[in-house]
Amino acid sequence: MQSIVHQERQKGKKIGFVPTMGALHEGHISLLTRCLDENDFSICSIFVNPKQFNNASDLTNYPRSISADLALLEKADCDLAFCPDYSEVYPHEMPTPIDLGLLGQCLESAYRPGHFEGVAVVVKRLFELTNPHCAYFGLKDFQQFAVVKRLVSLLKMDIEVIGCPTVRTAQGLALSSRNMLLSESEKTSALALYDCLVYARSLVRETSMNKIKQKVVDRFKNSTDPRLEYFEIVDGETLEPVISAEAHSQIVALIAAYLGKVRLIDNLILIP
Q: Per the residue annotation, which of 28, 92, 115, 248 is the catalytic one?
C-alpha cells in the first residue's frame, strides 16, 4: 500500500481516499465518485474496525459483503481497493489513545463509550498507510466527520477532510449499511427519523430550541418502533448544545433511534 502510494506521489499525482467498513451502497459510491473527480488516484479501504464497537453482538452482526463490494468498486473505476486484515492495521495491540475533548464525550459517545476513540485510532492508522491528500466522509455521521477534522488538526496532518452530503432514498431514508438488516416495514417506520429532522428545520426560525426538542420527543412518546434514543440540536463546529439560534453560523439536529435491534442515526443541518 505504502509503496504504491509513494510511486503515485512521485509521479505528481493527487491521492484521494475513501475509508469504509464495507457493505457498500450508493452513499459510499457517491463519495468515491467525488474522490475520482477531484483526484488523480483514488483509494477505497474496506475494514470493519473492532475498536469502534462497544457491543460485541453489533460487531458480529455488522453486514459484510466483500465480493459484492469489490465488484461495485471495480464498476465505479476505483483505482485501488485496500482490504487490510486486523494485524496490518494494528501491528501492536494497544494503539495510543487520542484525546478528542468534548467531541469524544457528547452525543454518540454517551451511548457508545469508546466508539470515537476507536474511530480516531483506525482513521489515524489508515491515513498513515494511504498517505492521501484528501479524504472523503459522508455527513450522515456528522459527529464522526467532526472527530476526523479534529484528529487531523491535533496531529497536524496535511490532509484535507471533505464532508459529502447524505444520500437518501426518494422517501428520505438515509442510506446506511445497517439498512440491510431492516425489513421493508421497518424501513418505512425508519422514515420517522428524517420526518422529525425536517419538522425541526421548519420550526428553527420561529421556535426556541428547547421547544423544538420537546415537540420532537413528544412524537416518539407512544412509539416502540422506532424507539428514540436521543434528539439534540448542536453547534455544527463544537457540537455543544444550542440554546438560541443567534451567534451560530451552523446548527445541526442529530437523532438516534432503534428499529427492533437495529440502531440508526441521522442528522440535518437546520441553519444555514
A: 28
